[in-house]
Write a structure and sequence with these properties.
- Helices cover 83% and strands 0% of the residues.
- The termini are far apart.
């Protein structure tokens, strides 16, 4: 009596087969078991297991090839999507590069403007320092002139006081001389009168 191997649906595990006189029958793959069972029912006797197991490998290869083809198609679709994404990213990258170039140019221009402003500031600071030095020099000269003026004024005031003192002394002497002159003039008039009287007596 021949034992039939039950049919296995795709995606289900094959049930364990009872071991016969040879252990090779229980170790047949699922597709081989299905084909083996079909041939056994049709012919009334079990076929040669080696003839069935080779078909199982071919079918598995076809299934794998079909699966690989489907996976390949999916990968092609994914590759196309990736290419589209890469193109979009390249466009974004070009835009980013242009934006970056504009930003770099703006930074360069701002750097030049900053350097120019720094140079102008240094020039202004230099002029301010020079002006401050000139102002300090002018103030020093004014202080020297003021000191010299004070010294000259003090000297002139001293000379003026001395001159006034001398004039006062001279005025006093002039008064004395004037008194002496008046006295001498009176004495001369008296003498002149005496001479006149003497001349009158002599005549």
């Amino acid at each position: 009596q021949t034992e039939l191997i039950p049919r296995v649906a795709p995606g289900q595990a094959a049930p364990a087969s009872p071991a016969g006189n040879d252990g090779e029958r229980a170790a047949a793959p699922p597709l081989g078991q299905t084909l083996y069972s079909t041939l056994a029912n049709a012919g009334g006797g079990p076929p040669d297991p080696t003839m069935v197991w080779g078909v199982d490998e071919t079918l598995m290869g076809m299934v794998k090839s079909n699966a690989l083809i489907q996976v390949n198609e999916k990968l092609r679709e994914k590759l196309g999507e990736c290419e589209s994404v890469i193109k979009a990213l390249q466009v974004d990258l070009e835009r980013a590069k242009k934006t970056n170039e504009r930003a770099v140019n703006q930074v360069h221009n701002l750097t030049i403007e900053r350097d120019h402003l720094l140079m102008e500031r240094e020039t202004v600071v230099t002029k301010a320092v020079a002006s401050e030095a000139a102002a300090e020099s002018a103030q020093a000269q004014m202080r020297e002139l003021a000191a010299q003026h004070d010294s000259n004024r003090a000297t002139l005031e001293t000379q003026l006081r001395e001159t006034r003192s001398k004039l006062s002394v001279a005025y006093d002497k002039n008064d004395e001389l004037a008194k002496e002159n008046r006295a001498l003039s009176a004495e001369n008039r008296e003498k002149a009168k005496q001479v006149s009287r003497l001349e009158t007596h002599l005549i």
